[in-house]
Amino acid sequence: MHKEKRVLQSGACAVLLIVVLAGSDAGHAAPLLKQIGPGLYAYISDNDTSANSTFLIGNNGILVVDTGLDAKEGGKLLEKIHTLSSLPIKFIVNTHYHRDHQGGNAVVGPSATVISTDWTRERTLSVIQSQAPGSGLRPAEVTFQQQLTVHLDPYSAEVYFPGKAHTSGDALVYFPQHGAIAMGDLFLTNSCPAMDQGSAEKWIQALDHVLDLPVKSVVPGHFELATKTELRRFRDYLNDLYSQVHALYQKGDTIEEVRRGIHMEKYKEFRQYEKYEATFADNAAVIYQQLQHH
Ligand SMILES: [Zn+2]
């Protein structure tokens, strides 16, 4: 998701190790690899602190979209890629600057060309500056404003900026030959999203655009591989919430009244995460603030 919090104190590590081992013995908590089409795979993370990835194996190299939280998560992804191909990782696309999407860059593709929007590169540079060196983040070498195409014969990947949404500089990656798209955190399956400096209004428009594309497989930033059915539900969630917040805002309600006044029972199956400020009420509060600054 997006909060950069250290989840564990070092004293808890031994306990964690036991839990992780027990978990893997029991056969769960392992990342899932799902083939979407020829050479194209979704890597579904086994935990909510590290994002999903998507990778495309071409004739001469591999493109990876998002690399996970850190060296460990990036290493898990690389291991999965290596079960399928020993070709070099030539390109990494980072959908946005949050660490859980780009913390594995250095491990996954030490000599890959990293691609992001200009905005994401700027934000990544300021994160590196504000945190101690050694953060492991690696900003993009190639940036763009609107779109670029990566040719990975015999396939291609169209990387584009959909407008402000989850952040102000997200990138989506559309695979036209596969009818697939990697959404970054513009879409989480059956879950409330985290909302950074973006725009809920433009976010909904960006989702409508994707729903118009001839897409069968939709890779979310987190959770299960999806189709347009889940994407449409997520779009409807954002749209319903936006309409409700807008009406309450027009009526003159305060932010606290709006947090309490929304009715999202219809989406009760959605995951909500207080620790990532990703609840119905948190999303409503962000939309309220965006309306204030409109
Ligand atoms: Zn994010």
Task: Sum up the structure in keywords.
294 residues; alpha/beta; Metallo-beta-lactamase, Chain A; 5-stranded mixed β-sheet; binds zinc ion
Brief synopsis:
Residues 4-27 have low confidence and may be disordered. This protein is an alpha/beta fold.
Task: Describe what this molecule looks like in 3D.
This protein has nine helices and twelve strands. It has 294 residues and is an alpha/beta fold. The protein has a single domain, classed as Ribonuclease Z/Hydroxyacylglutathione hydrolase-like (Metallo-beta-lactamase, Chain A, 4-Layer Sandwich), CATH 3.60.15.10. The strands form two sheets. It has a seven-stranded mixed beta sheet. Strand 8 and strand 9 form a beta hairpin. The longest helix is centred in the C-terminal third of the chain and has 24 residues. The chain starts with 12 loop residues before the first helix and ends with a helix. Zinc ion binds next to loops. The site of zinc ion has 6 residues, from loops.
How would the blueprint of this fold be written?
Blueprint: H1 13-25, E1 32-37, E2 40-44, E3 53-57, E4 62-65, H2 71-82, E5 89-93, H3 99-102, H4 105-108, E6 113-117, H5 118-130, E7 142-144, E8 147-152, E9 155-160, E10 172-175, E11 180-182, H6 200-212, E12 217-219, H7 228-251, H8 255-261, H9 280-292
Bound molecules: zinc ion.
